């Protein structure tokens, strides 16, 4: 009988020990499941954040493209307006200056060296010019003079 009691006691100890081991495994499995769930949730949150950033980038790209398109349109309109103004603007020259092709020319009655003529033009806010075409020369130079210093300005 005594042997029976020892066997029962040992069986009870093994069963009790097995229950403790099973409980530990169960706790560990629950911990792993919780960790896996948290990692999955974190991954889903990261994916949502990336999606939101991609949408934001797409919206910014669309906005940039619209601004560029508007800029191009405005610049084109500005160029057209400048062209219209240049073609319709009445150019007037200061006293003593002659108009030719939307440009004002000054014909000096004094004969200067090239350097002095250039300096005089500079003082008047003009440039000394080289006349490149016969039409320009005929209109700019007076018919009565054989030697003329010529100054030029676009203002």
TrEMBL record:
Output the InterPro entries linked to this UniProt entry. C-type_lectin-like/link_sf, CTDL_fold
The name this protein goes by in its record: C-type lectin domain-containing protein
């Amino acid at each position: 009988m005594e042997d029976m009691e020892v066997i029962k006691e040992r069986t009870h100890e093994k069963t009790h020990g097995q229950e403790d081991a099973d409980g530990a495994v169960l706790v560990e499995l629950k911990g792993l499941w919780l960790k896996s769930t948290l990692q999955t949730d974190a991954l889903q949150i990261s994916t949502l954040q990336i999606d939101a950033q991609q949408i934001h980038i797409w919206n910014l790209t669309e906005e940039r493209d619209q601004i560029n398109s508007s800029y191009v349109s405005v610049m084109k309109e500005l160029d057209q307006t400048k062209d219209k103004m240049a073609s319709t603007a009445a150019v007037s020259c200061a006293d003593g200056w002659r108009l030719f092709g939307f440009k004002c020319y000054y014909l000096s009655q004094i004969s200067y060296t090239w350097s002095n003529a250039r300096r005089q033009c500079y003082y008047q806010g003009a440039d000394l010019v080289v006349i490149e075409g016969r039409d320009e020369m005929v209109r700019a130079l007076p018919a009565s003079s054989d030697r003329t210093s010529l100054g030029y300005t676009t203002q």
